[in-house]
Design goal:
The protein is α+β, with helices and mostly antiparallel strands. The longest helix is centred in the middle third of the chain and has 22 residues, at 125-146. Helices cover 48% and strands 22% of the residues. The chain has 2 domains: 2-128, 2-Layer Sandwich (Beta-Lactamase), CATH 3.30.450; 147-304, 2-Layer Sandwich (Alpha-Beta Plaits), CATH 3.30.70.270. The mean pLDDT is 90. Helix 9 packs across helix 10 (237-253). The protein is built from 11 helices and 12 strands. The strands form 3 sheets. Strands 2-1-5-4-3 form a 5-stranded antiparallel sheet. The chain has a 5-stranded mixed sheet with strand order 7-8-6-11-12, with helices on both faces. A two-stranded antiparallel sheet has the order 9-10.
Length: 308
C-alpha cells in the first residue's frame, strides 16, 4: 500500500512538472514551498529561484521585470496591500487575472487548516476572447436596437424610455423639466425637389447642428420622419425657450450643400413644461398642440404650450 502511494506521488510529481497548468504551494507565512515551471513562468523566473521566497517578493520581482500580473494602478505596493485583504479570506476562492502579455488565467486558492495554500492557474485566454467578442456583438446589437440608423441618435422607443425615466427622477427631486417637439418645415418639398438622399442629408445635418447645442445630459431622439424630440431636465421656461430659439436660429442660418446645390431649411418647435410626474404621451400631446400653433402661425417659430 505504501509503495502504491509512493508511486502515485511520483507520477503526480512528473505530471505537475510537465503540466501547462500552474501549481504552487505557499506555507502559512506565505513563503513558496513548491511550484512547477508553469507557475514560475507566471512570475518570470524558475522554480529554484523562487523556492522559499515570500509571495510579496514574487510580485515585486515580476513587476520589476514587467512580467506577469497586470497591475492597473501601476503601484505594486498598493496591489500587494490589496492582495493581503483577499488571500486566505476563504477556504476556497476562484478569480480571473489578466496578464501583461494579454493572456488571461483562472486562479483558484485552496487554504488548509494549518495555513498552507495551494494555488492553481489555468489559461482561459481563448474563452475570454470569445467572451469579449460576444460582449462586443451584444453591445452592437443593443446599440442598433436603441439608435436611429440614419441619424445615430436615440430612436423613438429608446427616447421614450429615457424620457419616462427622467420624468420620474425629476419628479422625485421636484425639478422643473421641459420637452421640445421639433419638426422640419416643408420637408416634403425637400424630398420632392431634391430626392430622398437629399432629405436624408438634411436630417443628418439637422441632427449634427442640434447635438452641439445641447447639454451633455439632455435627451435627444428622432421620433419619426422629420420629427425630433428633446427632453430638458432641471430646466425652467426661460432656459427651455432660449435653447429652442438657439436651435431654430442656428438651423435657419445654416446652408446645406448637396450635390453642388445649396439649400436651407427652417424648423418649428413646440414646448411643453412639466412640474410633476406624468407619462411621455401626455407631454408629447401638449408639445404637439404648441407645434401645431407654430406651424399655423407661419412656421419657423417657437411656441410654448399653455397647458401645464
Amino acid at each position: 500500500m505504501e509503495r502504491s502511494v509512493a508511486e502515485l506521488v511520483k507520477h503526480i510529481g512528473k505530471f505537475l512538472g510537465t503540466s501547462s497548468e500552474a501549481y504552487g504551494i505557499f506555507n502559512g507565512e506565505d513563503h513558496l514551498i513548491g511550484c512547477n515551471h508553469a507557475f514560475a513562468n507566471l512570475f518570470g523566473d524558475s522554480p529554484d529561484a523562487f523556492l522559499n521566497r515570500h509571495f510579496d517578493d514574487l510580485v515585486r520581482n515580476a513587476f520589476r521585470k514587467q512580467h506577469g500580473i497586470k497591475i492597473d494602478s501601476g503601484d505594486v505596493e498598493q496591489f500587494i496591500d490589496m492582495t493581503k485583504t483577499r488571500r486566505r479570506s476563504a477556504a476556497y476562492r476562484v478569480f480571473e487575472v489578466d496578464m501583461l502579455d494579454g493572456l488571461w488565467f483562472l486562479f483558484s486558492e485552496q487554504t488548509l487548516a494549518n495555513g498552507d495554500m495551494l494555488i492553481h492557474a489555468r489559461d482561459i485566454t481563448k474563452q475570454k476572447k470569445n467572451e469579449f467578442e460576444l460582449h462586443a456583438k451584444s453591445s452592437k446589437l443593443r446599440k442598433l436596437a436603441l439608435t436611429d440608423e440614419l441619424t445615430q441618435i436615440a430612436n423613438r422607443r429608446s427616447f421614450i424610455n429615457s424620457v419616462n425615466a427622467e420624468i420620474s427622477r425629476c419628479s422625485r427631486n421636484k425639478a422643473k423639466m421641459a420637452f421640445l417637439l421639433l419638426d422640419i418645415d416643408y420637408f416634403k418639398n425637400v424630398n420632392d425637389t431634391y430626392g430622398h438622399l437629399a432629405g436624408d442629408a438634411v436630417l443628418i445635418n439637422i441632427t449634427q447642428l442640434i447635438t452641439v447645442l445641447l447639454r451633455e445630459y439632455d435627451v435627444f431622439g428622432r421620433l419619426g420622419g422629420e420629427e425630433f424630440g428633446i427632453f430638458l431636465a432641471d430646466t425652467d421656461l426661460n432656459t427651455a425657450t432660449e435653447i429652442a430659439q438657439r436651435i431654430r436660429e442656428k438651423i435657419q442660418q445654416h446652408v446645406i450643400e448637396i450635390d453642388h446645390q445649396k439649400m436651407s431649411v427652417t424648423v418649428s418647435i413646440g414646448i411643453a413644461l412639466l412640474n410633476q410626474a406624468t407619462k411621455f404621451e401626455t407631454l408629447y400631446k401638449r408639445a404637439d398642440v404648441a407645434l401645431y400653433q407654430a406651424k399655423n402661425g407661419g412656421r419657423n417659430k417657437v411656441v410654448v404650450s399653455d397647458q401645464g
